[in-house]
Amino acid sequence: MKVFVYALLTLSVLAAGWLGWQVFGPSRAAATPTVERCVEITFICTETGALSRGPRVETPALNPALGRATLVQALYCPKCQKWVPMPPAAVLERMPLGPVCLEHRTALLETAPAGSPGEVLR
Ligand SMILES: [Zn+2]
Questions:
Q1: How far is the CA of 19 from the centre of ligand 1 (A)?
Q2: To pair with 54 at 20 to 30 A between CA atoms, which of 14, 65, 86, 91?
Q3: How large is the greatest C-alpha to C-alpha distance in the chain, in angstroms?
C-alpha cells in the first residue's frame, strides 16, 4: 500500500510539473524553432532568384513580396556552392535517385552543409 501511495504522489508531482511547464514554460513560439528547422525548407523565387525560408508547402508557393506564386523549393549543390530551383517534375522523373545538379550530376541537398557558403540559409 505504501508503494501505491508513493507512486500516486510521484504521479501527481509529475502531473503538476507538466502542467506548470505547459502554463509557465517557454511559450510555443519560442519552443518551435528546433522543430521548425527540420520542417522548414529553402525557397527560391523563379522571378527574382531571391532565397527565403519557410515551412514545406506545395509549390509554386505565393511570394508575399510579389503577390504571385513564384516560389519553388531551392536545393543546394555542394559543387556549385549555390542554391538551384527544384528541377521540374518531368526532369525529376528521369532522376530515380533523387534530384541532381544538371551541371555536376551531384545529389542536391535540402540543407547546405555546415561551413558552406550557403549555410546562412540552412
Ligand atoms: Zn552543381
A1: 50
A2: 91
A3: 72
Cα–Cα distance, 77 to 108 (Å, whole number):
5
Q: Are 61 and 95 in contact (CB under 8 A)?
A: no
- Write down the residue that cell numbers 528547422 correspond to: 37
Q: 34-37: which pairs have CB atoms within 8 A and are 24 or more residues apart?
A: 37/122
CA 102 to ligand 1 centroid distance, Å = 7
Q: Is 100 helix (H, G, I), strand (E, B) or coil?
A: strand
Span 101-120, pLDDT tens digits: 989 999 999 999 888 887 75
Q: What is the pLDDT of residues 36-94, one digit of tens each?
A: 445 789 999 999 999 999 999 999 999 999 999 999 999 999 999 999 999 988 999 99
Cβ-proximal residues to 110 (8 Å cutoff; 6+ apart), any chain: 41, 42, 73, 75, 76
Give the bridge partners for 71, in sequence order. Answer: 45, 61
CA of 25 to the centre of ligand 1 (A): 44
Closest listed residue to residue 74, CA positions, set 42, 113, 52: 42
